[in-house]
Amino acid sequence: FTDTVEAQRVAVLEQTVTAFFNDSPAQVRRYHYDLHTAIRPSLLPTFALFPYQTHDYDAVMLDSLKAAELDALVYHNAVGRTFTHFSSAQFQAASSTLELGHAKPFGQNDLAAFAAINHVLRTVVSEQALPIRQKQAIQTFRVVDSIIKTEDDFQLNLADSAPNFSVFETDAVIALQQGKPYVTAPDQVRILFPNTQVKKGLRAGLILTEVHA
C-alpha cells in the first residue's frame, strides 16, 4: 500500500505531527483531537474512540469530550494502526478520534451541529473552564472483539443500512462464513463500523460491550 495516494497522505500527516511535537517543549501536555464525520448513520450520533494504552486516559480530554456533548466513548482493546494510536504511542499525546455525526456532501453540513466541539476545543486551547454538560450522561463502551473477514462469502447478520451501535442480543449470530455462524454474541453487544466489503484479512466491524459505572 506504500504507493497509494492514501499511504502518501498518511506519511505526510505523520511527518507533520512528528515535526510539531518535536518542536514543542517536552514538559507540555500534548493533545490530539482527530475530527471526522461518519458515512454510516449511528444510534449514538457523536462519539469518541480512544486508542489502546496501558496508562490512565487523560482526565482533561475526558472532561472536554463530555463537555462537548458527545453521546458515547469507545475504548479500543488492542494496538491499532490509527492516526490517534500513532500520536499516543509515539508522543504520549492524549488522543481521540471523534465522529461528529453523519457525513454530508462538501458544503452541505450544518455547521451549527459542531458548535459544542468548536467551543470546547477553543476552551481547551485557551485553558479556560469547560462548559457544563447539558445532555444526559455519556455512555461508555469497550471493544471486546474485532470481526475479521477471511472468506469471500462472509456476511454480517444485519442490513447494509444498519446504523453504528446496532444491538445484538445474547447468543445472536453476528456474522456468517462458509455457511456457518462465524461470530456469536456472548452477551448483549453492539457493532461499530460494520462493513462486508473489506478485503479478506481486514476488519469488518468492532464488537462493543457497554461499561456501566
TrEMBL record:
<dbReference type="InterPro" id="IPR007036">
    <property type="entry name" value="Aste_AspA_hybrid_dom"/>
</dbReference>
<dbReference type="Pfam" id="PF04952">
    <property type="entry name" value="AstE_AspA_hybrid"/>
</dbReference>
<feature type="domain" description="AstE/AspA barrel-sandwich hybrid">
    <location>
        <begin position="137"/>
        <end position="210"/>
    </location>
</feature>
<dbReference type="InterPro" id="IPR050178">
    <property type="entry name" value="AspA/AstE_fam"/>
</dbReference>
<keyword id="KW-0378">Hydrolase</keyword>
<dbReference type="GO" id="GO:0046872">
    <property type="term" value="F:metal ion binding"/>
</dbReference>
<protein>
    <submittedName>
        <fullName>Succinylglutamate desuccinylase</fullName>
    </submittedName>
</protein>
<dbReference type="GO" id="GO:0016811">
    <property type="term" value="F:hydrolase activity, acting on carbon-nitrogen (but not peptide) bonds, in linear amides"/>
</dbReference>
<feature type="domain" description="Succinylglutamate desuccinylase/Aspartoacylase catalytic">
    <location>
        <begin position="6"/>
        <end position="117"/>
    </location>
</feature>
<dbReference type="GO" id="GO:0016788">
    <property type="term" value="F:hydrolase activity, acting on ester bonds"/>
</dbReference>
<keyword id="KW-0479">Metal-binding</keyword>
<keyword id="KW-0862">Zinc</keyword>
<dbReference type="InterPro" id="IPR055438">
    <property type="entry name" value="AstE_AspA_cat"/>
</dbReference>
<dbReference type="Pfam" id="PF24827">
    <property type="entry name" value="AstE_AspA_cat"/>
</dbReference>
